[in-house]
Amino acid sequence: MMKIISIGMNHETASVELRECIAKEPDIPVKALASMRDLEYIREGFFLSTCNRVEALVTTENAAEAKKSMITLISGLGNIPRESFSSSLYTFEDADAIRHIFRVASSLDSMVVGEPQILGQIKEAYAQATRLKASGVILNRLMHRAFHVAKRVRTGTGICEAAVSISFAAVELAKKIFHVLDGKNVLLIGAGEMAELAARHLMTQGVSSMAVANRTFDRAVKVAEFLKVRAVSFEEIGAQLLEADIVVTSTASPEYVITYDRVKSSLRKRRSRPLFFIDIAVPRDVQPEVNNLENVYVYDIDDLKGVIELNMAHRQQEAIKAERIVEEEVVKFEKWLKTLAVVPTIVSLRNKAESIIQAELKKSSSAMGELTSAQEEAIRTLTRSIVEKVLNDPILYLKRKADGTSLNTYLDVTIRLFNLDQDNGDTE
User: Fold this and answer.
1) Is residue 344 a part of any domain in this protein?
2) Do the Cβ atoms of 228 and 211 come closer than 8 Å?
3) Is 84 in a helix, a strand, or coil?
4) Domain containing 10: what range?
5) Quick check: is 21 catalytic?
6) Is the domain of 134 the same as that of 197?
7) What is the pLDDT of residues 186-242, one digit of tens each?
8) CB within 8 A of 287, min separation 6: which ones?
9) CA–CA separation, 78 vs 84, rounded Å?
10) Which one of 22, 42, 51, 411 is the catalytic residue?
11) Using only C-alpha atoms, what is the Rg of the chain?
12) 264, exposed or middle or buried, with CB in 10 Å at 0-12, 13-18, 19+?
């Protein structure tokens, strides 16, 4: 029997140091999907890698072996010994796996409940799975239902109404350090979506100036024009540290962009002015040792949890409604999944009916004489219509029994009644 397995780690089960071992390579999802496609016990696969989670969703006929294969795969992708991360993994099967992906897509399992970015990330990961032909009938249906559930949750609850996000939390944290942000200078390193969101929040708080640095200068210029701020080159970051009060970093660099030595060399000229780093990148952009310097404060994505919790009361209330929607959809999907057991018998039944139609039309052709194309099509339509109506009740009955304990008995009876087993000589 086919099983659905979800295995991975997220912000609650694994530290940022562990998660960034997997997330630091941009082509990890492609490598994962390519490997999953070749694994003996994996039938279909989906792989998601974000700053807050790394997880795989697979279908298999051997759950134990599939889990072993996926743990080995994750170990190889991140070059991490199995014993270093096995305790940080979560595993869900069947209904629990279905519920998990529905909750993730609906942002009920996010660090910030209700944040919209995760759905886009899942859609992108699913697109990769389909392009690489890693997904199939079950995961295709499951992912489309996950998108449907996310839409129901978004439109049917107020879970997205409260202004909480990683970027918003970063700004709240800056306000706790400086009390007010009027007159502060901001350096934005990286020009992705997260950085842009943080910049917009900061602009509403009255910061006096902002500079945007990006490894690709054209992108920095584009974002700077949109925000109506200055663009600077990546090579100017050292000089910009002399003026900045707040530095928001969100790049995809596998190496530290802000090092201990770089910050230390700027402190004397800063004359003890506090310098606040908000590192929302995974892997981290700021070397952790920077936090040891006097009047320098470094907060990474895990440090934002406390700020986020202050903004969650409204969304948690709405999450109760969202969880009900998820449960309704889990039941519906499980019911569909169980109908897959009757599909081969239904297909065989329809195929046999079609072969009988073709054989009888061929036998009757001489008796009917010369017919026009329209007459032939009318006879075929009539014949198929009669057969469909005869088969309709048995097929509906089998589908209704799909989630019952006696399904195998009904399937066996159907196979014998209609003589669908070609190897069975018993035609009584």
Assistant:
1) no
2) no
3) helix
4) 3-161
5) no
6) no
7) 999 998 777 787 888 888 888 889 999 999 999 999 989 988 899 999 999 999 999
8) 256, 258, 259, 260
9) 11
10) 51
11) 29
12) middle
Look at residue 222 and give its three-state secondary structure.
helix
Residue whose pair of structure tokens reads 């663009």 in the numeric block: 231
β-partners of residue 189 are: 213, 249
Are 102 and 322 within 8 A, CB to CB? no
Indicate if 68 and 100 belong to the same structural domain: yes
249: phi then psi, degrees, rounded to nearest 5: -115, 135
* Beta carbons of 330 and 102 less than 8 angstroms apart: yes
**Chain position carrying tokens 């496609």:** 37
25/154 same-domain check: yes
| Assigned token pair, 88 | 């940080």
pLDDT digits (tens, 9 = 90+) for 295-324: 999 998 888 776 677 667 777 788 899 999
| pTM attached to this predicted model | 0.62
CATH label of the domain that carries residue 25: 3.30.460.30
Which amino acid belongs to residue 265?
A: S
Biggest distance spanned by C-alpha atoms of the chain:
105
**Residue pair 147/99 in contact by the 8 Å Cβ criterion:** no
Tokens at 51, concatenated: 């700053």
Task: Please count the CA atoms within 13 angstroms of the CA of 339 that sit on its side-chain side.
Answer: 16
**Count: domains in the chain:** 3
In DSSP terms, 211 is beta-bridged to: 187, 230
